Protein backbone atom coordinates (compact mmCIF):
# COMPACT_ATOMS: atom_id res chain seq x y z
CA UNK A 1 0.00 0.00 0.00
CA UNK A 2 2.12 2.84 -1.25
CA UNK A 3 -0.72 5.21 -1.86
CA UNK A 4 -0.08 8.90 -1.39
CA UNK A 5 -2.31 11.91 -1.06
CA UNK A 6 -5.63 11.88 -2.88
CA UNK A 7 -4.87 14.09 -5.87
CA UNK A 8 -7.46 14.58 -8.61
CA UNK A 9 -6.92 12.00 -11.30
CA UNK A 10 -8.47 10.80 -14.51
CA UNK A 11 -10.73 7.80 -14.02
CA UNK A 12 -10.34 4.70 -16.17
CA UNK A 13 -13.24 2.90 -17.77
CA UNK A 14 -13.24 -0.50 -19.44
CA UNK A 15 -15.92 -0.86 -22.10
CA UNK A 16 -16.77 -4.50 -22.79
CA UNK A 17 -18.82 -4.45 -25.97
CA UNK A 18 -18.61 -6.24 -29.33
CA UNK A 19 -20.98 -4.17 -31.46
CA UNK A 20 -18.99 -1.56 -33.49
CA UNK A 21 -21.84 0.98 -33.64
CA UNK A 22 -22.27 0.87 -29.84
CA UNK A 23 -18.53 1.16 -29.29
CA UNK A 24 -18.39 4.23 -31.50
CA UNK A 25 -21.34 5.90 -29.78
CA UNK A 26 -20.10 5.17 -26.22
CA UNK A 27 -16.51 6.15 -26.99
CA UNK A 28 -17.82 9.45 -28.42
CA UNK A 29 -19.76 10.00 -25.19
CA UNK A 30 -17.05 9.25 -22.67
CA UNK A 31 -13.58 9.56 -24.10
CA UNK A 32 -13.16 13.28 -23.44
CA UNK A 33 -13.76 12.91 -19.67
CA UNK A 34 -12.36 9.45 -19.00
CA UNK A 35 -9.55 7.17 -20.09
CA UNK A 36 -11.35 4.48 -22.07
CA UNK A 37 -10.17 0.96 -22.96
CA UNK A 38 -12.20 -1.42 -25.09
CA UNK A 39 -12.57 -5.21 -24.97
CA UNK A 40 -14.71 -6.96 -27.57
CA UNK A 41 -14.61 -10.40 -25.97
CA UNK A 42 -14.80 -11.95 -22.51
CA UNK A 43 -11.22 -13.20 -22.90
CA UNK A 44 -9.86 -9.74 -23.73
CA UNK A 45 -11.87 -8.17 -20.88
CA UNK A 46 -10.38 -10.53 -18.28
CA UNK A 47 -6.92 -10.06 -19.73
CA UNK A 48 -7.17 -6.26 -19.50
CA UNK A 49 -8.65 -6.45 -16.01
CA UNK A 50 -5.77 -8.51 -14.73
CA UNK A 51 -3.04 -6.37 -16.31
CA UNK A 52 -4.37 -2.80 -15.84
CA UNK A 53 -6.46 -1.14 -13.19
CA UNK A 54 -9.87 0.36 -13.94
CA UNK A 55 -12.42 2.23 -11.86
CA UNK A 56 -15.53 1.32 -13.80
CA UNK A 57 -16.56 -1.37 -16.28
CA UNK A 58 -19.42 -0.91 -18.76
CA UNK A 59 -20.39 -4.49 -19.38
CA UNK A 60 -22.42 -5.91 -22.24
CA UNK A 61 -23.99 -9.27 -21.39
CA UNK A 62 -24.03 -11.12 -24.68
CA UNK A 63 -20.47 -11.50 -25.93
CA UNK A 64 -19.08 -13.74 -28.68
CA UNK A 65 -17.17 -15.98 -26.23
CA UNK A 66 -19.17 -15.81 -23.03
CA UNK A 67 -21.42 -13.56 -21.07
CA UNK A 68 -21.21 -10.49 -18.88
CA UNK A 69 -22.80 -12.17 -15.86
CA UNK A 70 -19.85 -14.59 -15.72
CA UNK A 71 -17.35 -11.73 -16.01
CA UNK A 72 -19.08 -9.89 -13.18
CA UNK A 73 -19.09 -13.01 -10.99
CA UNK A 74 -15.42 -13.63 -11.66
CA UNK A 75 -14.43 -10.04 -10.87
CA UNK A 76 -16.48 -9.90 -7.68
CA UNK A 77 -15.08 -13.23 -6.46
CA UNK A 78 -11.47 -12.17 -7.15
CA UNK A 79 -11.20 -8.58 -5.94
CA UNK A 80 -7.55 -9.10 -4.95
CA UNK A 81 -6.76 -9.77 -8.61
CA UNK A 82 -9.17 -7.44 -10.38
CA UNK A 83 -9.47 -4.57 -7.91
CA UNK A 84 -12.51 -2.71 -6.61
CA UNK A 85 -13.98 -1.84 -9.98
CA UNK A 86 -17.63 -0.70 -10.24
CA UNK A 87 -19.72 -2.52 -12.82
CA UNK A 88 -22.55 -1.12 -14.94
CA UNK A 89 -24.36 -3.65 -17.10
CA UNK A 90 -25.38 -2.30 -20.47
CA UNK A 91 -27.55 -4.70 -22.38
CA UNK A 92 -30.53 -5.45 -24.55
CA UNK A 93 -31.63 -8.16 -22.08
CA UNK A 94 -34.33 -6.07 -20.51
CA UNK A 95 -36.38 -8.52 -18.44
CA UNK A 96 -36.74 -7.71 -14.73
CA UNK A 97 -35.19 -11.11 -13.92
CA UNK A 98 -32.04 -10.31 -15.89
CA UNK A 99 -31.79 -6.87 -14.33
CA UNK A 100 -32.26 -8.30 -10.82
CA UNK A 101 -29.65 -10.98 -11.56
CA UNK A 102 -27.10 -8.39 -12.73
CA UNK A 103 -27.59 -6.28 -9.62
CA UNK A 104 -27.49 -9.28 -7.28
CA UNK A 105 -24.21 -10.44 -8.81
CA UNK A 106 -22.58 -7.16 -7.85
CA UNK A 107 -23.44 -4.75 -10.65
CA UNK A 108 -23.97 -1.17 -9.45
CA UNK A 109 -26.34 -0.23 -12.27
CA UNK A 110 -28.14 -1.73 -15.27
CA UNK A 111 -28.70 0.24 -18.45
CA UNK A 112 -31.03 -0.91 -21.21
CA UNK A 113 -30.01 -0.72 -24.88
CA UNK A 114 -30.38 1.24 -27.03
CA UNK A 115 -28.33 3.52 -24.84
CA UNK A 116 -29.18 7.20 -24.62
CA UNK A 117 -26.00 9.32 -24.62
CA UNK A 118 -27.21 11.83 -22.03
CA UNK A 119 -28.45 9.13 -19.65
CA UNK A 120 -25.25 7.13 -20.08
CA UNK A 121 -23.07 10.13 -19.25
CA UNK A 122 -25.18 10.94 -16.17
CA UNK A 123 -25.11 7.37 -14.86
CA UNK A 124 -21.38 6.97 -15.43
CA UNK A 125 -20.77 10.29 -13.67
CA UNK A 126 -22.86 9.14 -10.70
CA UNK A 127 -20.96 5.85 -10.38
CA UNK A 128 -17.63 7.65 -10.63
CA UNK A 129 -18.72 10.06 -7.87
CA UNK A 130 -19.64 7.10 -5.65
CA UNK A 131 -16.36 5.43 -6.48
CA UNK A 132 -14.47 8.62 -5.57
CA UNK A 133 -16.31 8.85 -2.22
CA UNK A 134 -15.43 5.23 -1.44
CA UNK A 135 -11.82 5.89 -2.31
CA UNK A 136 -11.77 8.86 0.03
CA UNK A 137 -13.43 6.88 2.82
CA UNK A 138 -10.94 4.06 2.40
CA UNK A 139 -8.11 6.57 2.49
CA UNK A 140 -9.46 8.14 5.70
CA UNK A 141 -9.82 4.78 7.44
CA UNK A 142 -6.42 3.45 6.41
CA UNK A 143 -4.11 6.46 6.37
CA UNK A 144 -2.74 8.62 9.14
CA UNK A 145 -3.79 12.23 8.63
CA UNK A 146 -0.57 13.76 9.94
CA UNK A 147 2.07 11.73 8.15
CA UNK A 148 0.03 10.45 5.16
CA UNK A 149 1.32 6.91 5.61
CA UNK A 150 -0.85 3.89 6.57
CA UNK A 151 -2.22 3.95 10.11
CA UNK A 152 -2.37 1.33 12.86
CA UNK A 153 -5.53 -0.22 11.52
CA UNK A 154 -3.98 -0.72 8.07
CA UNK A 155 -0.85 -2.06 9.74
CA UNK A 156 -2.81 -4.68 11.73
CA UNK A 157 -4.54 -5.89 8.55
CA UNK A 158 -1.33 -5.96 6.53
CA UNK A 159 0.67 -7.78 9.20
CA UNK A 160 -1.92 -10.52 9.44
CA UNK A 161 -2.03 -10.86 5.64
CA UNK A 162 1.74 -11.00 5.32
CA UNK A 163 2.00 -13.49 8.17
CA UNK A 164 -0.34 -15.88 6.35
CA UNK A 165 1.40 -15.27 3.01
CA UNK A 166 4.80 -15.99 4.56
CA UNK A 167 3.42 -19.20 6.06
CA UNK A 168 1.97 -20.30 2.71
CA UNK A 169 5.09 -19.43 0.76
CA UNK A 170 7.54 -20.48 3.50
CA UNK A 171 9.31 -17.14 3.55
CA UNK A 172 10.93 -15.14 6.32
CA UNK A 173 8.97 -12.16 7.58
CA UNK A 174 10.63 -9.24 9.37
CA UNK A 175 8.87 -6.68 11.50
CA UNK A 176 10.48 -3.51 12.85
CA UNK A 177 8.99 -1.25 15.48
CA UNK A 178 10.60 2.18 15.69
CA UNK A 179 10.34 4.88 18.30
CA UNK A 180 11.74 8.41 18.17
CA UNK A 181 14.18 9.02 21.04
CA UNK A 182 13.44 11.66 23.67
CA UNK A 183 10.43 12.81 21.75
CA UNK A 184 8.64 14.10 24.82
CA UNK A 185 11.58 16.42 25.44
CA UNK A 186 11.50 17.44 21.78
CA UNK A 187 7.85 18.48 22.04
CA UNK A 188 8.51 20.26 25.34
CA UNK A 189 11.47 22.18 23.94
CA UNK A 190 10.35 22.98 20.41
CA UNK A 191 6.55 22.78 20.66
CA UNK A 192 3.94 20.43 19.23
CA UNK A 193 3.91 21.85 15.66
CA UNK A 194 7.67 21.17 15.45
CA UNK A 195 7.02 17.70 16.90
CA UNK A 196 4.42 17.08 14.20
CA UNK A 197 6.89 18.17 11.55
CA UNK A 198 9.47 15.80 12.97
CA UNK A 199 6.96 12.92 12.68
CA UNK A 200 6.34 13.87 9.04
CA UNK A 201 10.07 13.83 8.32
CA UNK A 202 10.36 10.46 10.02
CA UNK A 203 7.56 9.05 7.82
CA UNK A 204 9.07 10.54 4.66
CA UNK A 205 12.47 9.11 5.57
CA UNK A 206 10.99 5.62 5.98
CA UNK A 207 9.19 5.96 2.67
CA UNK A 208 12.47 6.64 0.89
CA UNK A 209 14.38 3.98 2.87
CA UNK A 210 12.07 1.05 2.14
CA UNK A 211 11.28 1.00 -1.54
CA UNK A 212 10.43 -2.57 -2.44
CA UNK A 213 6.81 -2.98 -3.51
CA UNK A 214 6.16 -5.40 -0.68
CA UNK A 215 7.70 -3.13 1.99
CA UNK A 216 5.02 -1.66 4.21
CA UNK A 217 5.46 1.27 6.55
CA UNK A 218 2.92 2.59 9.02
CA UNK A 219 2.46 4.97 11.90
CA UNK A 220 2.01 2.52 14.75
CA UNK A 221 0.88 5.11 17.25
CA UNK A 222 2.15 8.41 18.74
CA UNK A 223 5.84 8.61 17.92
CA UNK A 224 6.08 4.91 17.03
CA UNK A 225 6.33 3.57 13.49
CA UNK A 226 6.37 0.06 12.06
CA UNK A 227 7.91 -1.53 8.99
CA UNK A 228 6.93 -4.94 7.58
CA UNK A 229 9.52 -6.53 5.32
CA UNK A 230 8.30 -9.57 3.43
CA UNK A 231 10.81 -12.27 2.45
CA UNK A 232 13.58 -10.41 4.25
CA UNK A 233 16.04 -12.05 6.65
CA UNK A 234 17.28 -10.47 9.86
CA UNK A 235 20.67 -9.36 8.52
CA UNK A 236 19.09 -7.54 5.60
CA UNK A 237 16.41 -5.98 7.78
CA UNK A 238 19.05 -4.68 10.21
CA UNK A 239 21.23 -3.32 7.39
CA UNK A 240 18.30 -1.50 5.80
CA UNK A 241 17.21 -0.09 9.13
CA UNK A 242 20.73 1.09 9.94
CA UNK A 243 20.83 2.93 6.62
CA UNK A 244 17.46 4.45 7.37
CA UNK A 245 18.65 5.58 10.82
CA UNK A 246 21.78 7.15 9.29
CA UNK A 247 19.63 8.95 6.70
CA UNK A 248 17.29 10.22 9.44
CA UNK A 249 20.20 11.48 11.54
CA UNK A 250 21.45 13.11 8.34
CA UNK A 251 18.32 15.27 8.33
CA UNK A 252 19.97 17.11 11.23
CA UNK A 253 16.85 17.96 13.17
CA UNK A 254 18.33 19.80 16.14
CA UNK A 255 17.45 18.30 19.53
CA UNK A 256 19.04 20.00 22.51
CA UNK A 257 17.00 17.82 24.88
CA UNK A 258 18.54 14.58 23.65
CA UNK A 259 21.16 13.08 25.94
CA UNK A 260 22.75 11.00 23.17
CA UNK A 261 22.94 13.16 20.06
CA UNK A 262 22.74 16.78 18.93
CA UNK A 263 19.87 15.90 16.62
CA UNK A 264 16.81 13.66 16.60
CA UNK A 265 17.38 9.88 16.44
CA UNK A 266 15.24 6.77 16.68
CA UNK A 267 15.56 3.28 18.10
CA UNK A 268 14.20 0.15 16.48
CA UNK A 269 13.45 -3.43 17.45
CA UNK A 270 13.29 -6.06 14.74
CA UNK A 271 11.94 -9.56 14.82
CA UNK A 272 12.33 -12.05 11.98
CA UNK A 273 10.30 -15.23 11.89
CA UNK A 274 9.43 -18.14 9.69
CA UNK A 275 5.70 -18.23 10.36
CA UNK A 276 5.18 -21.98 10.01
CA UNK A 277 7.32 -22.44 13.12
CA UNK A 278 6.25 -19.49 15.26
CA UNK A 279 3.21 -17.77 16.67
CA UNK A 280 1.86 -14.42 15.65
CA UNK A 281 1.73 -12.98 19.17
CA UNK A 282 5.26 -14.04 19.92
CA UNK A 283 6.37 -12.30 16.73
CA UNK A 284 4.86 -8.94 17.69
CA UNK A 285 5.98 -9.18 21.32
CA UNK A 286 9.53 -9.99 20.32
CA UNK A 287 9.81 -6.93 18.07
CA UNK A 288 8.54 -4.86 21.00
CA UNK A 289 11.05 -6.42 23.41
CA UNK A 290 13.88 -5.76 20.94
CA UNK A 291 12.83 -2.11 20.81
CA UNK A 292 12.97 -2.02 24.58
CA UNK A 293 16.49 -3.50 24.40
CA UNK A 294 17.57 -0.84 21.89
CA UNK A 295 16.32 1.86 24.27
CA UNK A 296 17.98 0.22 27.27
CA UNK A 297 21.30 -0.13 25.45
CA UNK A 298 21.52 3.62 24.82
CA UNK A 299 19.03 4.46 22.00
CA UNK A 300 19.83 5.46 18.38
CA UNK A 301 20.37 1.81 17.58
CA UNK A 302 18.72 -1.30 16.24
CA UNK A 303 18.30 -4.60 18.06
CA UNK A 304 17.00 -7.69 16.33
CA UNK A 305 16.22 -11.32 16.92
CA UNK A 306 15.43 -14.42 14.89
CA UNK A 307 12.51 -16.09 16.52
CA UNK A 308 13.49 -19.51 15.26
CA UNK A 309 15.71 -21.18 12.74
CA UNK A 310 19.46 -21.68 12.73
CA UNK A 311 20.55 -18.04 12.67
CA UNK A 312 19.27 -16.96 16.08
CA UNK A 313 20.98 -13.67 16.81
CA UNK A 314 20.50 -10.81 19.26
N1 LIG B 1 3.95 16.49 18.30
C1 LIG B 1 3.39 15.28 18.51
N2 LIG B 1 3.77 14.57 19.58
C2 LIG B 1 3.22 13.36 19.77
C3 LIG B 1 2.28 12.83 18.88
N3 LIG B 1 1.94 11.59 19.32
C4 LIG B 1 2.64 11.36 20.47
N4 LIG B 1 3.42 12.42 20.74
C5 LIG B 1 4.30 12.63 21.90
O1 LIG B 1 5.34 11.71 21.91
C6 LIG B 1 5.88 11.70 23.25
C7 LIG B 1 6.32 10.32 23.60
O2 LIG B 1 6.97 10.37 24.83
P1 LIG B 1 7.57 9.12 25.57
O3 LIG B 1 6.68 7.93 25.33
O4 LIG B 1 7.86 9.52 26.98
O5 LIG B 1 8.88 8.78 24.80
P2 LIG B 1 10.23 9.60 24.58
O6 LIG B 1 10.20 10.95 25.22
O7 LIG B 1 10.50 9.58 23.11
O8 LIG B 1 11.27 8.73 25.34
P3 LIG B 1 12.10 7.48 24.80
O9 LIG B 1 11.22 6.78 23.80
O10 LIG B 1 12.35 6.64 26.01
O11 LIG B 1 13.34 7.99 24.18
C8 LIG B 1 4.77 12.23 24.17
O12 LIG B 1 5.16 13.47 24.68
C9 LIG B 1 3.59 12.41 23.23
O13 LIG B 1 2.81 13.54 23.56
C10 LIG B 1 1.88 13.65 17.76
O14 LIG B 1 1.04 13.29 16.92
N5 LIG B 1 2.47 14.85 17.61
UniProtKB/TrEMBL annotation:
Domain called GGDEF: residue spans: 171-307
Alphabetized UniProt keyword annotations: Phosphoprotein
InterPro entries xref list: CheY-like_superfamily (IPR011006), Diguanylate_Cyclase (IPR050469), GGDEF_dom (IPR000160), Nucleotide_cyclase (IPR029787), Rev_trsase/Diguanyl_cyclase (IPR043128), Sig_transdc_resp-reg_receiver (IPR001789)
PTM-bearing positions, type 4-aspartylphosphate: 60
Ranges where the Response regulatory domain occurs: 12-128
GO cellular component: plasma membrane
Descriptive protein name: diguanylate cyclase
